[in-house]
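Homework-ish question, so no full write-ups if that breaks the rules, but can someone show me the predicted structure for this set?
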Amino acid sequence: MINWLKETGEERDIIVSSRVRLARNLDSCFFPGRMETTTAVKVYQNISEALEHKTFQSFRLKDIPEIERNMLVEKHIISPALTLTPELSGFAMNQNESQSVLINEEDHIRIQTLTSGLSLREAWDQADELDDRLESKLNYAFDEKVGYLTACPTNLGTGLRASVMIHLPALEMTKEINKVFMTISQFGLAVRGVYGEGTKALGSLYQISNQSTLGDGEEIIIKKIENLSRQIASKERETRKRLIERNTVLLEDKIFRAYGILKHARSITADEAVRLMSLIKLGVGLELITDCTMNEIDRLYVDIQPASIQYLQRQEMDNMERDVKRAELLRNSF
Amino acid sequence: MICDECGANNAKIRLTKIVNGKMIERNLCEQCAKKHSQFHGPFSLQNIMSGWLSDFHKQETIQKLQCEKCGMTYDEFKQSGKFGCSHCYGSFKKNLSPLIRSIHGHDSHRGKIPEKAGSELKQKKEIEKLKHQLSEAIETEAYEKAAEIRDKIKELEKEV
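A: Not a homework solution, just the prediction itself:
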């Protein structure tokens, strides 16, 4: 379950969460891709000591069982890349899991903060503060001309990747979404689906983030994404209103059919569940469905993922068993 | 066996993909398999990046450049798209500016400066200024003043 997600927050009906990631490296050691295990362990120790022990708990990846690792990936607390080198990597997180520090992924340090709704500024302030705290105890690799030095030149400069997770079913239905994305790409922002593969976003959930990390200051990057996301959210809201006014029965039918399946299915894949829950989210946003909250649904998105299902049940399960457990979980939730 | 994709060449490679928990098996010829690995390889960003990097510096004969700290060669960097250490940026400096510009559209950082580096930066600039004053003092034969400035520089250099 996602602990930090709140019911309230700006644009919460359309924007699920905001996320800030900062890439940092220590000046004295090779980057993780070229590092010996002994150095990696030292780096891990230095970083976890530099974090306050009271608020952060750190773990070496090799000590975390595989299902739990995958569950943490599904919760977006750690990245899939971190799990590739369990002997070298580790992470630290605070109690409600809203802040994490990935250690020895592609870079020595990846600071990450997650907040509810459209709240990039808050996420940035938190990350900035944690960054200052780490920097006071560690020596960062920094160059006056090109900024924070990163293993991959695509993260150079601010090392900042800011993003929002946004739910756009109405713009998808009217096919206006491509126009929206074309416009924002002209502002140097990138869009990708949160779930699903390729260009099609499963469950209409998209992530909008800055493409370039060098040239603009952090304030400008944050402001740009906040501003454009707010505009897209208001466009989505308008489109939803228009859709429900013009096609009341059709849209209601779609939403309540999804509701019916989730409420009664005996076996369901994660993909199908994500697709149907998107319609429930839309129904809650339009106040057609009132017996569950946006927060409950958004938390379910993570809980129904393969590793999270197994983690909740404390046992390994095959595909079929998972589909059955997933259906059970969903039945109990709606 | 004939390739599932082009239906013309002999299939030599069996490609197994797992998509959303479902296993898909295909028999492919070398050419078609190549196409797949390019777009669905586990590190597609890396593949694209290295393909582009080698194109980027095609005509130049700079392969022998090597980072003196971590030993990474520029060739290796082109392959992986990732640097070996922070020192690589200095070692490959000459080649990097156009590359960085082509990725970000800029080549100068305008954001946060870490406090430590910030104060060091200030000191470095201060030392430069004093050195300039020192040579001026020597030129005008103001030796007493020059000695004073020299001591200041020494002190600052100790801190950096």
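Now go work out the reasoning yourself. Hint: The mean pLDDT of chain A is 94.
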